[in-house]
Amino acid sequence: MTITRGAGRSIAASPARTCSRSSCSRTFCYIDARNLRWALDRLAVYLEDARLFVRSTGDADDRWLDEYTLAEGCAEVRRWHCPEPGWPGVFTVYEALVRARPDDRELRRFVAFAHRERAAHRGDAGLVREHLARAAALDEP
After folding, report:
1. H or E element: which one contains 56?
2. Which of 18, 98, 132, 135 has a Cα at 20 to 30 A from 111?
């Protein structure tokens, strides 16, 4: 699956509009994340480098996956739209990011870890094998 960023430039996922306020409708609520961004900006100056993903789940709208990168004293956030709900959509974004950044060894290690973690919490033997096989493939150089 090809996911696009910005004006059709092909990369890992499609960033959503950054919300600068809370707004709600009947089905979901956009939550203002400025406080988290502010806190990570302040924390970035004390960390060497870090990357984390935050999955939107608090407002019953799990279509968003935020990627925070803290490097060189700054925090950068990218919001990715998950093409399907729940964990399958999250893994679709993870895999698209791995394809878009083939030289990013830390990302490959993280996604392999995420596959192993997901396998540990699955009851379906087929899905467990699928996650573990993908983790093994990502662990290869």
Report:
1. none
2. 18
